[in-house]
Task: inverse folding
C-alpha cells in the first residue's frame, strides 16, 4: 500500500517552461488536493477535486491547471513557469469531508 | 480564506505545556489538526466536528467552539518528539470538500 505518490520529487525549470506534477493514490479516495508550501505561508490550496470528474479552484489557482484523470490520479500543470512558483508542492487525498487527509512526500520545484 | 493560527512560534522546555489557537472568519463544520516535521509531509493528528467535543491523542488534545469559530490544540508535558510545525485545517460550509490550512505554528521543544 503506497498511499499517495508524487512524481517527480525534485525539479528545476527555467522561466517559461511547462511541466506537469503527477499525483496518484491507491486508497480509493474520492477527494484530492494540491497545495503549495512557502516559508511563513503555511499550506495554501491551489486546486481540489471533490470527486472524479470535478475540479475546483482553491485559494491560489492562478498560473496552474489541473486534471482529475481518473479516481486515482490528479495532476497539476504549470503552463509557463515563473520564479514565484518556486515552492514545495504537496498532493493530498481523503475518502470524504470528515476523514483524515493523507499527504504525498512533496515535490520541490525551483524555477530559475 | 485561510484560518489564522496563533502564536506563530513557540519555544518550550521538555515537560512544559503549550496551547495553539486556530480561528476562522467563516462558519466551521469541522477542524483538522496536522503536524509536520522538517522536510516531511504533514501527518494527521485529529478531527473535531461541530458539537464542541474535545478529543485526545496521547498527551495532545483539542477543543472546538463552533460558535466562536475557534479551535485550540493542547500539548501537555511536551516531549522532544512534539517538535514540528502544527497546522489547523478547516472544511468550511456544510457539505464542502474544500480543506484549507492556517499558516502554521512552529513548536520547538528543548531538553
Result:
Amino acid at each position: 500500500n503506497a498511499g499517495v505518490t508524487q512524481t517527480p520529487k525534485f525539479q528545476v525549470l527555467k522561466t517559461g517552461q511547462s511541466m506537469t506534477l503527477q499525483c496518484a493514490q491507491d486508497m480509493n479516495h474520492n477527494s484530492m488536493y494540491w497545495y503549495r508550501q512557502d516559508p511563513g505561508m503555511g499550506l495554501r490550496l491551489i486546486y481540489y477535486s471533490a470527486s472524479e470528474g470535478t475540479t475546483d479552484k482553491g485559494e491560489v489557482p492562478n498560473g496552474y491547471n489541473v486534471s482529475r484523470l481518473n479516481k486515482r490520479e490528479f495532476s497539476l500543470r504549470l503552463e509557463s513557469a515563473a520564479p514565484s512558483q518556486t515552492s514545495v508542492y504537496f498532493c493530498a487525498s481523503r475518502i470524504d469531508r470528515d476523514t483524515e487527509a493523507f499527504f504525498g512526500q512533496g515535490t520541490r520545484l525551483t524555477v530559475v | 480564506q485561510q484560518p489564522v493560527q496563533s502564536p506563530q512560534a513557540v519555544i518550550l522546555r521538555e515537560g512544559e505545556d503549550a496551547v495553539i489557537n486556530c480561528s476562522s472568519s467563516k462558519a466551521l463544520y469541522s477542524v483538522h489538526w496536522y503536524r509536520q516535521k522538517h522536510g516531511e509531509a504533514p501527518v494527521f493528528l485529529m478531527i473535531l466536528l461541530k458539537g464542541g467535543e474535545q478529543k485526545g491523542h496521547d498527551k495532545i488534545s483539542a477543543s472546538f467552539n463552533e460558535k466562536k469559530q475557534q479551535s485550540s490544540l493542547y500539548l501537555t508535558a511536551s516531549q522532544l518528539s512534539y517538535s514540528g510545525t502544527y497546522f489547523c485545517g478547516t472544511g468550511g460550509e456544510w457539505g464542502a470538500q474544500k480543506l484549507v490550512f492556517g499558516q502554521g505554528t512552529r513548536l520547538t521543544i528543548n531538553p
User: Anything to note?
Assistant: Chain B touches chain A through 27 residues (CB under 8 Å). Residues 37 and 84 of chain B are 5 Å apart (CA to CA). Chain B has a mean pLDDT of 89. The longest strand of chain B covers residues 30-36.
